[in-house]
Fold:
Amino acid sequence: MTEFSRIEEFIQSYADNIAKVLGLDVTILDEQGIRVSGTGYYSDLIGLPAPEGSFFRMILQTGQPGMIFDMKKNDSQCMNCKFLPQCRELATIGFPVHKREKTVGVIGIIGFSPEQKERMLHHSEKWMPFLQHTSALIEHKLLELDAEREKGCNMQEEMPQATLSPVYFAQLIGADTGLRDVIAKAKKVANSISTVLLRGESGTGKELLAKAIHSESQRARQPFVAVNCAAIPETLLESELFGYEGGAFTGSRREGKPGKFELAHKGTIFLDEVGDIPLSLQPKLLRVLQEKTVDRVGGVKTLEVDVRVIAATHKDLESMVREGTFREDLYYRLNVIPLRLKPLRERREDIPLYLQHFLYRYGTILQKGRLELDAGLARRLVAYDWPGNIRQLENAVEYMVNMAEGPTIGDAELPEYLLTGEETVDAEKAGAGLEQLLADYERAILQKHLADERHSKDKAAIASELQISLSTLYRKMEKYGLEL
Structure:
């Protein structure tokens, strides 16, 4: 049994959706070279082995990606394939699927028509990152199943709950595209004792990244304790973080209570929304970071703690320091290793992957079966700015899956605010200058025309309607990171 035999329905559904959005055919091979999913011409070849000497077989052997835009050239990597004379492919791009450094399959996109080949050539520099990300998503699914199996085997063991559901860097959607640089830095510091400060807007996945840093560190089998500093009333936050001795205040437990830092001993504590910690508590947090000791409320004994601290905030701490609402010495103690998570609008190539991931998740949870997005709707969702980032996108997909009455989700299933085009005003744009406002307006116009079904993916028609040259259209699409 191969790795892919456990997720056949998932990868076929994923291949179908990618093909529909890209307008290209998709095929996936397992580690034995058996075609486990395919669209179009390859849908009839599922279950059959790829030809010996073929391009995808070579990728399986070498573990290296590749692309071919002329199969019949003498130096083509397809020259050893025995089916080359009958081959109908005009362009092929393949990428290996790894699981913890082992090659377990190949995913490829194929163009059979001159139009498909032209599209693949024009966007050739973007296909590798896209397939790399898709490969990571498949690895994510395999690791997720491993974690569930491990959890079932360890349910009787007395282990911290956080260790039962590990999160790995390869599982993070965007790990090989929009998050590539962040993940590279996170891997370097996973075993460090230095404090990490995750910066980024709400909903960008800061807690998931914190869990991945913990799971890939030497502390992985120790507790991961998350604290949302903004969700705990100021009067209770001190005792929650640092604990209290019995009788320290009215209503306290007779035996006292350990704080979150004590509970995270030998492991990791994640201080989410650290910018919301009141000024009165900041000196005590600073001491914990500097001295690695904790004083319980009402206590007389200083307790040593061995804790890795990962903090996160969406606030502008630098402005808070200038305004005197956040201590400068605490800021520098937290900001040792800053990692910034980009909002979805700045890593738009990740949006299709999130859409497919959440479609599969909620289709399974809500027992709706295999679902796909209407192609035009998928393009509009990719063009949308998602001010609430991943959290908003997930909520939107969950709503659409609940509303779905058939296998294809269209405009009728959209949340009302997406259907009408109304969206939350981005606070960053509220104070934008004229140049930025004009750029935002130009980008919005291009998005509207690119998503319009009337143009049928005809860039020349779009350029004509906008009264600009085709080269100008391409240049502006590249400037704003847009695709047809």
Q: What stands out?
A: Residues 153-164, 421-432 have pLDDT under 50 and may be disordered. The chain has 19 helices and 14 strands. The two ends are 39 Å apart (CA to CA). The longest strand covers residues 102-111.
